[in-house]
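Human: I wish I could look at a protein chain and see how it folds. This is the protein in question:
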Amino acid sequence: MVEAKRVEREKKYLWQERTQVMSELAHLREAIQVQINAAPEEADAEITNRETNIILIGILERRLHHLDTALQAIERGTYGVCMRCGQPIEAERLAVRPEAILRLACQKAVEAGK
């Protein structure tokens, strides 16, 4: 288990990150709602921007999911425990990615489809 003082610090960080991600998502969602009213020669750039924003929304929604999952783990008292194998998540990993819900080995296995 992760020490209580560190958990509180990580919880604060996770909430700050969540707020930032929510703000960015709102901005991007608003941007894609705008109708494209451009001259034909400018329309391609507008469509590319819209497609880029849609991709960014997907990335941010995934990050939001990871942040929320980590915050739920804090509330359950399971923060720092791998959701796949039940072993402690490496302290170094949590220091770099406080929202991590898997040990590095488990993350690699999931990404490899194992």
